[in-house]
Amino acid sequence: MVKRKQMAATSPRAVPVPPLKQPSSIPSILRFPVLVITSMITSSTMYSLTSQVGTGDLAGVNKRRDEWWEIAAVLAWKATELGVSWWGEYDSWDLASLTLLSHMPYLYLLTTFYAVRPTTMWLGLLVDVVSTYLPFSLLRDSSPIHRPEASKGQVANRSILNDLNIKVYTSFLAAAVYGVVIYGSFRTWLPTFLIIHFEGLKDLSGAYEAALPGVTIGFLVSGYAAQSFLFMPALGAKPDAHDMQMAEFDPETATLGQTVWYNVWGYSKRSRTLIKRTATLVLASAMQTGLRTYITIEGVEPTGAAGWAGMWAAAATLVGAILWWVGDVEGVSN
């Protein structure tokens, strides 16, 4: 990514990026309510159709939701996830990647420590992703970032975005970061933490017998989702009016407020895109994982759910930082 001193030396020309086209004929004021309702109906239908798969695995794990606030909390968070993606100008591919990354930690817990079969985990993840991707794709077109045929005028670094090697390398890197964080936790604090705060654990061998290569390979899908949600949109971001203002910044004539703002948020469009998306991923991972773990798994203490969620939030933060470092090189247009 272009550093601030380089950005000040050359004034980038802001290129207006058209908003995502709305393919639906539904009035704009009704699209988000339709999105929420359609997504929830799709999710309920798919879970009903697949209810016989993994029923035995989950019978001794899931607890009954008898409190109204538990059901309300799950529905409210579901609507919040969709709302952040809708008003954040994400497209269906963005939402699918975000859903996979934020929903996977809960299912990974079940597979690793509660003897739930991997097929059950992947099926649940598929339902979660499809039930968000499908309604979103019907109501909003893909952004130019995710359309290989989009012109250079719509996105920056089109040739890099289309480079398969770049996608493979960054996917492996993101998977490796997830693998190192989770494996490091397995080898240090996590087993004791789980024993104390997770009543009813069935098996801890997943932590003690884990090997770093195997753990990393298990996160390859997550690595691809991370580069799709974080790295590619940031790399394809074109300069905007904010970049022009920062390029014209003069420390000799700037006020104190302007100087503070420049040092706090005087980043390029690419860096700001990556920072905001990383913050979204961290928040979504923490909230989805903590809420779902505490509400749905029998015997989990609030501290346990918070600790498990915090580990994944830390991993997401590190992934964003590493991908920012990878993109912060000279010779890549901004």
Descriptive account of the structure:
The N terminus is likely disordered. Helix 4 runs antiparallel to helix 15, helix 5 packs antiparallel against helix 12 and helix 5 crosses helix 15. The chain is mainly alpha-helical and 334 residues long. 37% of the residues are buried. It has 16 helices and no strands.
Compact summary:
Helices cover 69% and strands 0% of the residues. The chain is built from 16 helices and no strands. It has helices spanning 4-9, 28-49, 55-59, 68-87, 92-113, 118-139, 158-161, 164-187, 190-197, 205-208, 212-217, 220-235, 241-247, 256-265, 269-296, 302-327.
Order of helices and strands: HHHHHHHHHHHHHHHH
In round numbers, the mean pLDDT is: 87
Q: Main β-sheet: number of strands, strand sense, barrel status?
A: none
Instruction: Name the poorly predicted regions.
Output: 1-12
Tally of separate helices: 16
DSSP E strands, number: 0
Pick out its properties.
mainly alpha, 16 helices, 334 residues, 69% helix, disordered N terminus, 0% strand, globular
List the helices and strands and how they pair.
Layout: H1 4-9, H2 28-49, H3 55-59, H4 68-87, H5 92-113, H6 118-139, H7 158-161, H8 164-187, H9 190-197, H10 205-208, H11 212-217, H12 220-235, H13 241-247, H14 256-265, H15 269-296, H16 302-327
